Amino acid sequence: MAATFKVGDKVEHGSWGAGEIVFGPYTAAFGAERYLMKGENERHYVIGAEGMTPAAKFKVGDKVMGTFSGMEYTIEAGPFFSPNEWYATKSPQGNVTQNRAAVLALVEPEPARDTVENAGKTYELGIFYRDNDGDRWKFERSLTGIRSTSDSFEGGRQLSSVANLYGPLTKI
Q: Distance between CA atoms of 41 and 26, rounded to whole angstroms?
C-alpha cells in the first residue's frame, strides 16, 4: 500500500523530482488516488502516491538540535525509513547515534557579524568593549563612519580615536 500524503508535504517523485503536495488526495478516473504536486520548476503534476516518497527533512552535514535532549548533532547519514524517518547523527564528542526526524530541529547558522578593522585589529560592531580605564564602549555604523556609545563618555567618537586614546579595547 502506498503512503498517504497531505497538502504541504514535501516529497520526492521518481520522474518529476522534488516538490510539494498542493492538492489531494482525490479520486480520479477508475478510482485511482491522485495528488497535485507543484515541482521546484513551478510546474504542476498529477501523480499517484506510488511514485512519491517523503522528502528528506535534513541533509548530510546539517547541524541539528535534539528537541528533548537539547544536544547538538551533525547529520552523518540518512534519511532512513522504518517506518519513521530517522538519521545517523554525530555528537560533538564523536558518538554516532540514531535519532528520529520528529525529535530533531535544524540549527540555523549564525548570521555573519558586522566587523570593522582598525590599526590591524578587527572589532565586532554592536557589542561592548572595555578600555584600559574599565569604561565600556560599543561601536556601530553611522552615516559618517563607525561611532561609539559609552557609559562614561559622550558618544559619537570615532573607533580609531577611542582605540588610540583609551586602548587596548577588550571584548566583554
A: 23
